[in-house]
Amino acid sequence: MKDFKLYAITGEEFHQGRDLIEVMEEAILGGVDIIQLRDKKSKKIDVLKKAQALRELTKKHGVTFIVNDHIDVALAVDADGIHVGQDDLPLKEARKVMGPEKIIGISTHKIEEAREAEKGGADYIGVGPIFETKSKEDVVDPVTTAYIQQVAEEITIPFVAIGGIKLHNVDQVLAAGAKRVCMISEIVGADDVRGTCETFVKILSK
Ligand code: 3NM
To answer: Does 39 carry a binding-site annotation?
Structure first.
């Protein structure tokens, strides 16, 4: 997959009434390389509509588009890939459905899961939650930056740190060995989405 540094996930509860596509376009203009549609609540038809609009937007800007969990929606809109959690469709079956060319990312919360994802042919892994986060239900306890260090030492596929990452703590994440960061609330909840992303891009390229 094309490498990336700044990964934004949708979280409409943080959009402060702003339009999904407008918020994500600001994030792209600010320098985000991957957009993930994550919607655990809407009806399938509404998830599909959002995915169609985001596919169009990401194509226009040449940005990677990933759909969380809804593999049928990902295929229907020709997304670049899917992201699955530990309790979603297993990697092996996800690969069968998506084919060899599409990106498959998987969330991991401990080194055993990271090893298994790598062995199973994941294209990248999520590593988190690093800090406390209110953006995910049933989230496990923070894994802390110690988990980043473990993954950085041992895992060779790309990994992205996630969970409670903010402008004020991202330095700790990078110091532990992460090169890529993923956020919901700090990006899509920002008053200045574009400016916030630009600041992250500067920090990540140091
Ligand atoms: N996955 P925020 S943490 C979607 O640890 C998600 O796998 C996580 O949102 C994981 O940037 C998380 O607002 C929430 O903390 C990230």
So the answer is: yes
Alpha carbon of 133 to ligand 1 centroid (Å): 6
Q: What is the 3-state secondary structure (H, E, C) of the chain?
A: CCCCCEEEECCHHHCCCCCHHHHHHHHHHHCCCEEEECCCCCCHHHHHHHHHHHHHHHHHHCCEEEEECCHHHHHHCCCCEEEECCCCCCHHHHHHHHCCCCEEEEEECCHHHHHHHHHCCCCEEEECCCCCCCCCCCCCCCCHHHHHHHHHHHCCCCEEEECCCCCCCHHHHHHCCCCCEEECHHHHCCCCHHHHHHHHHHHHCC
Model pLDDT for residues 44-78, shown as the tens digit of each residue: 999 999 999 999 999 999 999 999 999 999 999 99
Contacts for 147 with CB less than 8 Å, ≥ 6 apart: 109, 110, 111, 127, 128, 130
Average pLDDT over residues 133-153: 94
Q: Choose, from 50, 55, 102, 107, the residue flagged as catalytic.
A: 107
Task: Determine whether 38 is an active site residue.
Answer: yes
Query: How many residues does this entry show for the chain?
Result: 206
